[in-house]
Every structure is written in structure tokens, then in C-alpha cells.
Amino acid sequence: MPLSREKIAATAIRLADAHGLDGLSLRKIAKELGVGPMRLYDYVINRSELLDLMVDVVYARIAEVSQHSEWRATVLAVAHATRAAALDHEWFSDLLGGRPHLGPHALAVGEATAAALSQAPGVRGIDDLQRAVGALNAVIIGAVRREVTERRTARSAGTDEAAWQASLGPYLTRMLETGKYPTVARLVIDGAHLDAEETFNHNLATVLDGITSHPHT
Amino acid sequence: MPLSREKIAATAIRLADAHGLDGLSLRKIAKELGVGPMRLYDYVINRSELLDLMVDVVYARIAEVSQHSEWRATVLAVAHATRAAALDHEWFSDLLGGRPHLGPHALAVGEATAAALSQAPGVRGIDDLQRAVGALNAVIIGAVRREVTERRTARSAGTDEAAWQASLGPYLTRMLETGKYPTVARLVIDGAHLDAEETFNHNLATVLDGITSHPHT
DNA sequence: TATTGGTGGATACACCGTACGGTAGCGCAC
DNA sequence: GTGCGCTACCGTACGGTGTATCCACCAATA
Asked: Residue B200's pLDDT is what?
């Protein structure tokens, strides 16, 4: 089997899933494929294009669920698929919004959501549509990034309890005990029980309602 | 002048402003300071902590404007200051949401926005507050990241017109001319004239209205 | 058979973050 | 005054990265 962009992207994704984006290198991918490092450059211009390739593979899976008859169902499906993809491939959230997503599957997802939003009530002209797309993407990107970051710190606290207790824990508790951040302290202490998915849904509903109600012309 | 965390952070920020986060290295900072690379490790544990330091310096400037009597004024001021900071220091947007912001000034900003939101109508309990903070941060992070990314690609198209025309331009136009992405094409062609700041304001207003109207219990 | 073209590979370079060992200087005990 | 110990500083070195360049081999053609 002669090595292809798809194969390269697939093993790159596997390695990134396992060791994160920082632990991903062309040499490791090549070694995993039993090939010299330079062979990859026959299929990919540079590391950056490899990342774009990986991103578009993920978008392909998101695009699969982006066809519904009702506009709101489409938007919700894309949003949830994006969140699920980012939770499956945490490196994806590191790349979200950091570079333009111009791969064919990314464009397909963009088309699906834009087409759906264009049918939402309250979205009248192309300007409304542009703003709606912007707001929706912003909320998805921001929420997903935030959730992945939280999950990472929680995990690093779990697996490396000693390090957490020794470094961040005391610092943070000391900070909160200064009394200068009472609201943050309340949030940290009392607000840990919320379900992440429900929060995501809530934020999504908030912005969608804002788009459709559209009190500003 | 004996070298300090502040001096290191300041020159690091200057270098990152000039050459981006990828062009930033401990060695270059050290050389800029006329010092061996290892001297930095007397003031900073690793590169990651240096980034945290830089981030908190930026948050210090944001925190300056975070005191207003009216909750909505506070939120708007913080949001705009964050956007302005990201446009001044584009690397800041790369770090937004990618790691927990736990520096003292970041906590101060978080406290100010949380305290403000807790006084917004429609925010009743701690759960409401947590969700509101999440939604607001998500929209700010997402919108700012998106804007910075757009600005970068626009700039790279401007300065390196040849490369743009040769690589991305044809690819994108070819993609759009396939007719598979009609809505996206319409957005790209007709929707370029919107003012970025106005879009930001609009998205912000959308989510704030969503928070205050609060149609979901 | 001789030549040529292209494909896969190894080597090399510049740079990165950072671990480590040595050294030089200063303050203190006697 | 003299010796000692300790601390702060510094250069060097290691393992890793992305990527450019050159080289060897092998197939197919003249």
C-alpha cells in the first residue's frame, strides 16, 4: 500500500489523539508509517498543510450530519457534531478558529450552516446572515475551546494529583482566600456541578434566540 | 538593570508582537536582553510559564477599564478592551481559551465580569451566573479569534499578493465556482463590506440580550 | 547495452527548549 | 588576615524539530 494523503492524515490524527498536538512531529508520523521523514513531503507541502488536512478529515465527519429539513435542527446537529469531534480529538479545538478552514468538507459544513441560518426567522439580508454566522461560530468555537481546556486541567489534576496539590491548588486557593475575587470564588466552589453538555445547549439556545428575536435593526 | 520577570515579559511581548508566537523563542529573548539563554530560567520555570506571564501582562491593561457602575457598561468595557488587546497583540488571541487564565490580573478581569453579570436582570442563581459567564466568554473568545484570523489572511494576501493569487485564490474561486457552496459564495462576494467592530458589537448585544431575556428556565 | 528519468532515502543544517556541570565571586568563621 | 563554603551565574551540550539538498538505485527506453 503505497502511502497516500489519507493514510498520512489518519496516522497523524491517531498520534495527535494519543499525544496531543505538541507531541506530533513529521518524524514520528513517518516512523509510524515505516518511512523516511522526507517521504511525507511528496504528499504535503509542510506541517501546516498537514494540520489543515487533519482538520478537514474531522470536518468530513461533521458534514455527515449536516442535512436536516428544519434549519434549527441543522444548526444544532452541526454544533453538537463539532463539540463531539473536539471532545474526540482535543487537538481539533486547538486549531478551531486559529486558521481559516477552507478544506472541501469544512466548506460543506459552512455551507450547510449558512444555508440553514439564512432560513431562520429574523435573518433578512446578507448582512444579517453574515452576522448570524459570525455569532454562531463564535459561540461554538469559544464554548468548545473552553470545555476542552477545562477537561485538560481537570485531567492533569486527576492523574497528577500531587503536582496539582503542590502547584496550582495552593496558588489558586491562596488567591481566592485573599477575598479579592469573591464572585470567582463562589463560582469555583459552588458552580462545579453543572453538566457540560447542558451548558453547551443553553449557550447555543441563547445565541440562537438572540438571532431569531433580532431586536436590533 | 538586573533583569526581572517584568523586563523579560516586556521584551517577550515586543518580540511576539513583531514576529508572532512562532517566531518567539527563549534564545531570541535572551539575545535581545544581552544574556545567555539559561538566565531566563532563573525567573521563569519554562516557556509555558513565560506565556502565562505575557498573557497576564495583557490582562492587566484590560483590568484597568473593568470598573463601571452599570453592569452592562462593565461587560462592554471588558469585551472591547479584550478585543483591542487582541488586535494590538495578535498572539494573545492564539492563547485565548487555550489555557486557564489564572494570573492575578486575569482573575481580576474574571471577577469584574462575573460580578457585573451577577447583577444583570435574568441572572438569578449561581447556575445562571455560571452559564452567563460561559456564554459571554465564549462569544468574546470566538469573535476575537475569528477576527484576528481574518485579519491575518487578509494581510498575507496583501503583502504577498503573488502567493495569494497563485495558491489560495484560484483554489477558493475554483471551489466556489463548483456551485456546491452557493451561500458561502454569496457571503464571500457580497458580505465583505461589514465593519468588524460593528459586527463585534452586534454579536455581543445578541448574547447579552439572550442572557437578560432568559426565556429558558 | 547504455542512458536516462524518476522515486525513495539518507544526510545535513539551523533552530528549538532545557538539563547539567563548572566557576567565579562574596560573605562569614576562625 | 586567611581559609572556607555557599550561592548566583554562565556556557556548553543533548535530544528533538522542520525542512533543503544531494545521492543511489532501479525501471524503462533508445
From this structure: 95
The angle subtended at Cα B138 by Cα B51 and Cα A110, nearest 5°, is 105
Return the amino acid letter for B134. Answer: G
Question: Pick from A21, A153, A151, A8: which is nearest to A92 by CA?
Answer: A21
Type of residue numbered B159: T
DSSP code at position B205: H
Measured CA to CA in angstroms, residue A175 lies from A59, A170, A189, B102 at distances of 41, 8, 13, 9
pLDDT at A189: 81
Q: CA A38 – C1' D22 distance (Å)?
A: 13
Q: Give the H or E element holding residue B24.
A: none
* pTM of the predicted protein model: 0.90
- Min Cα–Cα distance to chain A from B16, Å: 16
More reliable by pLDDT, A158 or A209: A209
d(CA B170, CA A49): 17
B1 touches strand D (CB under 7 A): no
- In 3D, which of B140, B120, B142 has the Cα closest to residue B80? B140
**How far is the C-alpha of A137 from the C-alpha of A116, rounded, in Å?**
13
pLDDT tens digits for A18-52? Answer: 999 999 999 999 998 888 889 999 999 999 999 99
The cell 434566540 sits on which residue?
A209
Q: What is the residue whose three cell numbers read 441560518?
A: A117
Nearest residue to A115 (alpha-carbon basis) of A86, A101, A136: A136
DSSP letter at A214?
Answer: -
Q: Do B146 and A153 touch (CB under 8 A)?
A: no
